Amino acid sequence: MLLEGKVVLVTGASAGIGRAVAIGCAEHGADVALNFSRDQAGADGAVAAIEALGRRAVAIQGDVADPQTARDFIDRAVDALGRIDAFVNNAGICPFHAFLDMPVETFERTMRVNLHGAYFMVQAAANRMVEQGDGGSIIAMSSISALVGGEYQTHYTPTKAGLHSLMQSAAIALGRHNIRCNSLFPGTILTDINKDDLADENKRRSMEGRVPLGRLGQPEDLIGPTVFLASDLARYVTGASLLVDGGLYVNLQ
User: Which NCBIfam families match (predicted)?
Assistant: First the structure.
């Protein structure tokens, strides 16, 4: 129960990593507010799972690409749950596409969701934490893609590198307020984002063969690292990053 008595906010929490992390934080005692864009059924299911654990939960719809969504989410979450102790910026998209004919809208939409949306969400969460006056934890779900390239991810990888850079700078800007800012770098995690890309059995086996732990990641693999960074166990950890990739990054040579 590392998060008992805390309130955690998670964006993009109706499915995948966000859903797993939201429920995992509730398993450790937190009340949770979930942001979601379109999947009402998925959001409702996550809320039900959290409430079944005896914790409070609220799902708030909004497109993170719209800067107004950030303030709306933070305000409504705090109205419902009383405060904010940890904020997890997870919402993101990765519409795989070749570089030379990348549509402008695909590039710009990816930037608006993954990076611009994160900036305004983190800013709104930080402002509320500063008002509360007792610190907090901000966690960005970056990616191994912040460290390595991807042929069909030229629009995506810069956003994940930008998220990590944002956490480094925010750690400096917010340290005086006892607000910690850190990044998680998931490796290849089986989610809706990559299910089509990994539908090719040969490609999937090849990817698994590059992971020292011998398997691709599951969304639940991000729970422990997130709970740690959100908890008081990480009270002196800020501006840091943690790979959660089964060893993939160190085995890429």
Answer: PRK07231.1
- Among 14, 145, 160, 231, the one annotated catalytic: 160
The two beta strands, 136-141 and 86-89, are: parallel
pTM of the model: 0.95
**Exactly one of 37, 137, 142, 156 is catalytic; which is it?**
156
**Residue 213 clears pLDDT 80, i.e. is over it:** yes
Q: Measured between alpha carbons, how far is 199 from 204 in angstroms, rounded to an integer?
A: 7
Is the CA virtual torsion 113, 103, 184, 37 positive or negative? positive
Indicate the average pLDDT of the chain: 96
Encoding tokens for residue 172? 């400096």
| Strand pairing class (31-36; 7-10) | parallel
Q: For residue 160, give every residue at least 6 positions away whose Cβ sits within 8 Å of its Cβ, in sequence order, or none.
A: 92, 114, 142, 143, 145, 146
Q: Could you confirm whether 119 is annotated as catalytic?
A: no
Q: Render 190-205 in DSSP notation, one character per residue.
A: -STTTTTTT-SHHHHH
Segment holding 137, helix H or strand E: strand 136-141
Query: Which of the following is catalytic: 143, 145, 183, 231?
Result: 143
Query: What DSSP line would sit under 58-124, residue for residue?
Result: EEEE--TTSHHHHHHHHHHHHHHHS--SEEEE---------STT--HHHHHHHHIIIIIHHHHHHHH
67, 74, 165, 194, 243 from 95: Cα distances, Å: 21, 27, 22, 9, 23
Active site residue 236: no
pLDDT confidence bin for 204, thresholds 50/70/90: confident
The answer to whether residue 160 is catalytic is: yes
